[in-house]
Write a structure and sequence with these properties.
It is built from nine helices and ten strands. By secondary structure, the chain is of the alpha+beta class. Helix 2 packs antiparallel against helix 3 and helix 2 crosses helix 4. A four-stranded antiparallel β-sheet has the order 3-1-2-9. The protein has a four-stranded antiparallel β-sheet with strand order 5-6-4-7, with helices on one face.
Length: 250
Amino acid sequence: MSGHSKWSKVKHQKASSDAARGKIFTKLANAITIAVRENGGIADPDTNFKLRLVIEKAKNVNMPKENINRAIERAKGVGEGSSLEEAIYEAFGPGGVGIIIEAATNNKQRTVSELKNILERSGGVLAASRAVSHFFKLVGLINISRADKSFDTIMEAAINYGAIDIEDAGETIEVYTAPSDLHKIKEALSNAGFTVSSFELFYKPITTVPITDQKMSQQILKLLSDLEDREDVQKVFANFDIPDQFLLTQ
C-alpha cells in the first residue's frame, strides 16, 4: 500500500477528534465558500460539482444547514470572511518528501508565515510553485469498504462505471476517477450496493519517496498532522512511502 493511502488512514483516525473541536465545520464552511467563488458564484450544487461534493461531506458529518447556507452567502460577499480565497502551496519535507498544501485564507502573508514556521521546525521548507506539483496528478478518489465484496467484483463495477484506476488498500478498495467524474461514479457505486466510506478530490503521487527510517517516518507524519491542524489548511497531500509497522506506532 502506497504512502498517500497511509496518510489518508491517519487522517480518518483523526476525523472524530477534529469534529469534536469544531475544526471540521470551519474547514468545510471555507471549502463551500471557495467552491462557489471559484466557479463564478454558482451556488447550485447540481451545476457546481465541487460544491456538491463539499455539501455531501458536510451532511455526512451533520453540519447544520444554516452553516452551509452562511458559507454560500459569504462566497457572494455577504458576512464576515467574504475575502476568503484558495491558495495552494508546495513544500519539501524530511527525506525530500513532496507536499502539497491546500489552504483557504483571507491573509496569505499570515498563512505563508505559519506554514514556513511549521515546516522549518520539522526539517521541511516551503518550495516554489510547480517545484512539487509535477510529482502528483489531480484525480477523484473513492474509498469502497470491502464488506463481503471481492476485489474483482469491485474492480469490474468501478471500471464499468468509468474508473481510471483501482488499488487494494487492505480494508478498503481505492477507486480513482477523472476529477469531473467523481460524483457520478460515487453515486453509481452507491446505487449498485457498494459502501462508500469516503470520497474526495485528491492529488495522487505519480512517484513516491521511500522512507525506511522509523524516526523520519514519525517526523513526517507529525509534520503533516501539524499542517492539517492549522485552521487555514484544508488538505495536505504527500508522496512518501513508509512500512506498515511504522504507521502502527502513530
